[in-house]
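Morning run. Coffee first, then this:
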Amino acid sequence: MFERDLYFATLGLLAKHGLKPHDLFGEEELTEFSRGRVIYALGIRNENPILRQIVQNLKVHFPGTWGNRHNVDIRNEIAHLELKRLTYSINQARELMAYDRKLKNAISKSVIELLYREGINLKFIIAKSGDTHDLSSPVLSSRSATHLGGKKLVFNRLLKYSCLDSGLRT
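And here it is:
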């Protein structure tokens, strides 16, 4: 979610200057930016005055991100969560609870729920090998944010809007 917020904040600040990413970034920066590596893309070549101003604005909204290696390391550890090790550990814990099927299933459900609370979806395939049913093929994805609570905005000629679902008019 952090990268998404940073990405859209950067797009907004670019738009404020009447720019699009390809107007400001070189090929390498644009590639990194499109991959969601916003901090890296903004730091490659920081000699452009508009780029420096955008970074200063982002620092206000995302304090502790620039110049704080510890925060970047936290983000990297989460982003590059070693799924093989996680899957192995969950399977080991499930093996410990094999005497009770409900407890065995609760282990994987608990881990999935913990990650879901943090905005991460985790899915496994259950692979049957002999008498065991181990988790395999983990897939991580970020949960999509629901913008405006599902409300649709309608713009009229006067550029005012109305929230159709709530009945509010402004």
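Confidence is low (pLDDT under 50) at residues 155-170. Good start to the day.
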